[in-house]
Amino acid sequence: MEIEKALYGLKDAGRLFEDHLWDLLQKLGWEASPLTGVFWKKKAGRVVGLLSQYVDDLIVVSLDGSVSEMVTEIAEVVECKEPERLGRYVGSDYEILPNGRIWCSQKQYIESIPGEQSKTPTQPLPSGVNREEDKSETLDAEGHKRYRQLLGELSYAAHCTRPDLEYASAWLSQFNQSPTVRAWRLLNRAIKYGKATSNRGILLDPPKHHEPMEVLLYCDAAGGSDEYPHPQTGWVLLINGRPIAWKSRKQKRFARSSNRGELMALEDALDYGLVVMRFIKEIWRDAEMKCVIQTDSDGVCKMLKARNPKPQERALVQKVREIGGKVSIIPALAVFDSLKEGKIAVQHVSGVQNYADSLTKPMSVDLLASLLEKEKAGRIIYTSTGVETGDKKEKEMNDDNSDDEFPWPPQAQAPGRRDTAMAGEGHQTDRAIRTREEGGGLRMRQRQDYKAIHRGTTTFNTGVASAPIQFAM
């Protein structure tokens, strides 16, 4: 039986309207972009217009010519209200600043979420919450309905403009089927934290076509516990220092090792990074773009740097992609191939500087929240070496001369070549001193190599850094 007319208010009404609108947009020359819910219109092979759709709300952007012509064209085939300049869109507020930047926030929406009064917490969830056993009672039917409603409202804010609430939203969603009194209390805590920090949002910069564009993907994974055995994946995507997309979710499989969990998180971030790069390259074809995935896993970095994989491992890559992977080394080869295809580099980052860390475990979200403060975000600048703030730039310049900058263990040790042997407390051997003075010892070359790994560069045997690693340039 086929439905002839969809009634407003039915569960399928939104989807049916989207399908109907998509048919009309196709006739007007619009095409689906790689990003879900975003369409573009091309002229002579170049993108001239963008359209974002959320059910029956649309945002139309012209990249060439007047936007009024595109709006009028759409209004001829579907009934529309009088168009207006971008201000409020499906619960999000957009403020266009004098310098061309756009401030996106949901202050009004978050403050409207109801919730029980409680003391304002310092972070969305308490530390160690995922290690505690929940012995509280299950909510009744009315409480169950109320829990899912409030969690849905919190999750919408977390997905749109508040990555600092993303982990709390993801963790609380596992109680959707059977929420408990403890889960209800923690949900109200997260809502209270969101209201106390409702002034946070995302600052977007106007694109500069002739300046470099840097796409950074921070990824992380946290091992499961006896109560919640699946590892937690978290990643956040930054374009020139601005958070654009993020995700926190449980992995579908148990991880037999921490390296496997970290690798699956990197693969998840890579999948989205490839989609974003396709989208950006199609719009800004002349812009120089660099995409780097940052991970704090030494094991994953070593797997991706491994040379001469076994032929049987290489032959199984396609099969592993089909079945989801069974061991770490083979998915690592699959990831390496994807990196080569997408011209994406992988770098090691310290755990305390990994923005995705708070998307995988209950901890302080201050690092991630620093990107969401209007005043702090306004001081972020983009340089030829990346995105920095004044304080961070000065600190990294001072740390650059530190001997303890990269505490990675050596990947290989030549026999009889140790420059760290001690001839007594506080003294080094003559050989160690001579090696350091000559500047050609194994340890010094390794130190330069670790520094190159961290910055995404490779080194020759002489220890001189070459151009940044760009797979399959």
Your description of this structure?
This protein has helices spanning 13-27, 67-75, 107-111, 141-160, 166-172, 181-196, 258-283, 298-305, 311-315, 317-323, 329-342, 366-369, 374-378, 390-399, 430-438, 442-455; strands spanning 30-32, 38-43, 46-54, 57-62, 88-89, 92-96, 102-105, 201-204, 213-222, 232-239, 242-250, 289-295, 344-348, 381-383, 386-388, 422-424, 427-428, 457-459, 465-468. With 473 residues, the chain is an alpha+beta fold. The chain has a five-stranded mixed β-sheet. Strands 1-2-3-4 form a four-stranded antiparallel β-sheet. The N and C termini lie far apart (54 Å). Residues 390-473 have low confidence and may be disordered.
Kindly report the name of the CATH homologous superfamily of the largest domain: Ribonuclease H-like superfamily/Ribonuclease H
Rg calculated over all Cα atoms: 25 Å
Q: Please mark out the parts with pLDDT under 50 across 5 or more consecutive residues, or reply none.
A: 390-473
CATH architecture annotation of the largest domain: 2-Layer Sandwich
Q: What is the strand content?
A: 15-25%
- The class by helix and strand makeup works out as alpha+beta
What overall form do the CA principal axes indicate? globular
